[in-house]
Amino acid sequence: MHYINYPEDFKQRVKNFYPNDKVLHKKLEQGDSTVGYLLDINTPTSSSLKGLIHALSSNTLDEFKSGLNAPEDKINLYIEWGKLYKESIE
Predict the structure, then answer these.
(1) Which of the residues 6, 15, 36, 45 has an alpha carbon 20 to 30 A from that of 22?
(2) Nearest to 22 by CA among 38, 43, 6
(3) Distance of alpha carbon 49 from alpha carbon 90, whole angstroms
(4) Main-chain dihedrals φ then ψ at residue 5, nearest 5 degrees
């Protein structure tokens, strides 16, 4: 298994997007490279109906925008993981 020294800000952003995924949190803290797999299987390829409904039911414009940007933000986390992985093997 390959280990990655994840930056604290990266770990915190991942935990914020997946607050209930204790397995993911543990793997982040351990520097486990399988974090990438977990991010991959949890990364949407498009906005989900649930996400759109949440955005539409928001009380403010900022909440609405946040709801719509969530899938893109999760994709960006996965891309960032890829860069961290690449750096760790070079």
Answers:
(1) 45
(2) 38
(3) 40
(4) -85, 90
Q: What does the pLDDT look like over 53-79, one tens digit per residue?
A: 555 565 666 555 555 556 677 888 888
pTM attached to this predicted model:
0.70
Q: Which residue, 51, 44, 30, 31, is CA-closest to 77?
A: 44
| Two structure tokens written together for 19 | 């607050």
What is the C-alpha separation between 24 and 30, in angstroms, rounded?
10
- Which tokens belong to 73? 């933000």
**Could you tell me if 55 and 68 are in contact, meaning their C-beta atoms sit under 8 angstroms apart?**
yes
From the list 14, 12, 27, 36, the residue with the least C-alpha distance to 84 is: 36
As given in the structure block, the two tokens for residue 16 are 């914020």
**Cβ contact 81:35 at 8 Å:** yes
